[in-house]
Amino acid sequence: MNILGCLDRPSSGGYWLVGDEVSRLGPQRLGAAAQSHLGFRVSKLQPAVAHHPRLENVELPLLYAGVSARERHVRAREALEHVGLGERMHHHPNQMSGGQQQRVAVARALVTRPRLIGG
């Protein structure tokens, strides 16, 4: 998973992501390629963001990508509605079941509209 997610480089062979051999990309291009084309379902939230409502948590990958606040909000709403949590987007983690929190993690992976989702 680390190689697929561009976190590690292969020790032999090659891995191409949307036409680019990842072992030949510099750190900035590698990060940009991973951010543009990959999404990961991470269910455990860092303590710093775990207390925020679900909508804000789903917006985080878009914030890091430099997406405008308005677009982040629209796309996060769409992703939460897509996983059946539109009515719970303003709830906090302690107000949701484990299954609902898993669906939030899926929404966070989908919000960047990646070509590949892992986790």
Strand content is: 5-15%
Poorly predicted spans: none
Q: Looking across the biggest beta sheet, what order are the strands in?
A: 1-2
Structural class: mainly alpha
Mean pLDDT: 78
Largest sheet: 2 strands, antiparallel
Radius of gyration equals: 15 Å
In terms of topology, how is this protein built?
Layout: E1 16-17, E2 20-21, H1 27-37, E3 38-40, H2 47-50, H3 54-64, H4 69-82, H5 98-110, E4 116-118
Parallel strand pairs: 3-4
Antiparallel strand pairs: 1-2
Structure report:
The protein has 119 residues and is mostly helical. The chain has two domains: 1-39, no CATH class; 47-118, no CATH class. Helix content is 45%, strand content 8%. The protein has five helices and four strands. Strands 1-2 form a two-stranded antiparallel sheet. It has a two-stranded parallel ribbon with strand order 3-4. The N and C termini lie close together (8 Å).
Salient structural properties:
single chain; 119 residues; mainly alpha; two-stranded antiparallel ribbon; 4 strands; elongated
